[in-house]
Design a protein that fits this description.
- This protein is of the alpha/beta class.
- Helices cover 36% and strands 12% of the residues.
- It contains 21 helices and 14 strands.
- The strands form 4 sheets. It has a 6-stranded mixed β-sheet with strand order 12-11-10-9-13-14. A 4-stranded parallel β-sheet has the order 2-1-3-4, with helices on both faces. Strands 5-6 form a two-stranded antiparallel ribbon.
- A hairpin with a 2-residue loop joins strand 7 and strand 8.
- The longest helix has 20 residues.
- The radius of gyration is 24 Å and the shape is globular.
- It binds FE2/S2 (inorganic) cluster.
- The site of FE2/S2 (inorganic) cluster has 10 residues, from loops.
Length: 576
């Protein structure tokens, strides 16, 4: 442990437990009521374990027992653990999308930490939006914080093949619709693809974001790569519990850890991982919570000079178990050390460079080095043009290279239901060169930017052997998805962004080398269409939906609430 900066009397929790007034009597007597004696907590750091477990949280089904591992570590180090449940964001279960509730969990995290006698916290998350949400809340509250990632699930299996979360669902769904596999095959895939607790084991949003959070300095070294059922994961939980107690004594807080340089490290790792497009939204939101302004052009600039190094689905071949056995995140970081700012402080109290020193790559098929990259650049590109004045993103390394420079006739769907009703109809006027456009799927239109951006290939084209087309939307797509899908078009169509003005039959030009996305319609014609466009009615008049509608920002700004970005932590109220 580094130098102790806190004493029992200067702990935040002392204001609840250490005084001699009537309120403190209540705090102590109610803690005794729960079966804890004074010796259990007196003068000790109180550690909140923010647990996103629930019966519907499929990726976090091991978090009940993992919280016990964390508590064991907290007790061992002389802390007092308090498990606090927070809202579940179960990615595939929650409608319209967990993204609508990311800011809800962030607010809940911040307010749990603020309103209770907490000195530090362990953030337990992993399933897509949970990691960013927990970290955003912790950054706003700025109490010592460590992140325990849920860890990826085991590799899926079917008919002697490895199955990857999400990626192989899309792949075999297309084969089923094309008549190339049977219903029996599909049922067996359903039973074999999610074989253990843990997050999606492809390089989807969960693995991308837990890797990024570790790179930022908020998890123990290599924590993000450990498969959820591995005994190393239990030990990582208890180590994290021990470490957070030390972090409280050292007064090592989130805003001591996150810096513009650590954010740049995180973006480089995003590119090296070939990570999820969702990260472009979450990293912006995380950085802005800490007062670090970040825009899409910065991703583009870093992406151009950072190689793609990890051969994992959906862009590559392998899965998270393979990544862990190949050395995991520390091995990747050590291999790309020269590209990183290794002097950045982390939750260990040491620098990133010290954390990764000596980590080795055990399988160069899975993890490459910059001397032998899969691609010389990151593969996540930012597009602009008259269709996306504020930007759009594309995962070029998961797209058919043939389509990266393409002009085609737009086939426009006004919303998801319109698309679902017409995409497979024989009369849909579409061919392999068409550009599928989905609108009203953005932050306000979705609402919450559901992961609809990988529009299905029309059935008649699937049967003809087509497996990729240019697709454009203001939606997101799952990190496990693939294809030539232009996403996050900003501003979104719901508020009158240019996607709202496109008509079926317009020519759309995608030029990835030139980073351009344009509809080939004159400015005069677009102006006439804009004049005729009518704004939509608000989706929500009450409740959280109304708050969301009034305050959520566009995709290029991170989709945070405007009243939560970039501010100093709210001062603790004087406790009476
Ligand atoms: Fe939870 Fe993919 S559904 S990480």
């Amino acid at each position: 442990m580094s130098e102790r900066k806190k004493t029992p009397e200067t702990l935040r929790s002392h204001r609840w437990y250490g005084k001699t007034d009537m309120r403190s009597f209540g705090h102590r007597s109610r803690t005794l009521q729960m079966g804890f004696s004074h010796e259990d907590y007196k003068g000790k750091p109180v550690i909140a374990i923010i647990n996103t477990w629930s019966d519907i949280s499929h990726c976090h089904s091991h978090f009940r027992e993992r919280a016990e591992d964390v508590k064991r570590g907290v007790w061992q180090a002389g802390g007092f653990p308090l498990e606090m449940p927070a809202i579940t964001l179960a990615e595939v279960m929650q409608k319209p999308t967990t993204m609508m509730y990311r800011n809800f969990l962030a607010m809940e995290t911040e307010e749990l930490l603020r309103s209770y006698p907490v000195d530090g916290c362990v953030l337990m998350g992993g399933c897509d939006k949970t990691g960013p949400a927990l970290l955003m809340g912790a950054l706003s509250m700025n109490l010592p914080s460590i992140f325990v990632p849920a860890g990826p699930m085991l590799t899926g299996r079917w008919a002697g093949k490895a199955l990857g979360s999400g990626s192989d669902v899309w792949k075999y769904w297309d084969e089923l619709r094309a008549g190339n596999i049977t219903q029996r095959d599909w049922d067996d895939i359903e039973a074999g693809i999610a074989r253990s607790p843990g997050t999606c084991m492809t390089m989807g949003t969960a693995s991308t974001m837990t890797g990024i959070i570790e790179t930022l300095g908020f998890s123990l070294p290599n924590a993000s790569a450990i498969p959820a059922p591995d005994s190393n994961h239990s030990r990582m939980g208890s180590y994290s519990g021990r470490r957070i107690v030390e972090m409280v004594w050292e007064d090592l807080k989130p805003r001591d850890i996150i810096t513009p340089r650590s954010v740049d490290n995180a973006i480089k790792v995003l590119m090296a991982l070939g990570g999820s497009t969702n990260a472009l939204i979450h990293v912006v939101a995380i950085a802005r919570r800490a007062g670090i302004d970040l825009n899409l052009d910065h991703f583009e600039a870093i992406g151009k000079r950072t190689p793609y190094l990890v051969n994992m689905r959906p862009a590559g071949q392998y899965l998270m178990e393979d990544f862990y056995y190949a050395g995991g995140l520390t091995a990747l970081l050590e291999g790309m050390r020269d590209l990183l700012d290794t002097g950045e402080l982390t939750c260990t109290g040491r620098t990133l460079g010290e954390n990764i020193a000596g980590a080795r790559i055990h399988n160069t098929e899975v993890i490459r080095t910059p001397a032998n990259p899969i691609r010389p650049d990151g593969g996540l590109v930012v597009l602009r043009g008259n269709l996306a004045p504020d930007g759009a993103v594309l995962k070029a390394n998961a797209a058919d290279p043939r389509l990266l420079t393409h002009t085609g006739r737009a086939v426009v769907f006004d919303d998801y239901n319109d698309m679902a009703a017409r995409i497979d109809t024989p009369e849909l006027d579409v061919d392999a060169d068409s550009v599928l456009v989905l609108r009203n799927a953005g932050p306000l239109g979705g609402p919450g930017m559901p992961e609809w951006g990988m529009l299905p290939i029309p059935k008649k084209l699937l049967k003809a052997g087509v497996r990729d087309m240019v697709r454009i939307s203001d939606a997101r797509m799952s990190g496990t998805s693939y294809g030539t899908c232009v996403l996050h078009v900003a501003p979104e169509s719901w508020i009158g962004g240019p996607l709202a003005l496109v008509k079926t039959g317009d020519l759309i030009e995608l030029d990835v080398p030139g980073r351009q996305l344009n509809v080939k319609v004159s400015d005069e014609e677009l102006a006439a269409r804009r004049a005729a466009w009518k704004p939509k009615a608000r989706r929500f008049e009450r409740g959280y939906g109304a708050l969301f509608s009034q305050h959520v920002s566009q995709a290029d700004k991170g989709c945070d609430f405007d009243f939560l970005e970039g501010m100093q932590p709210t001062e603790d109220p004087e406790i009476h």
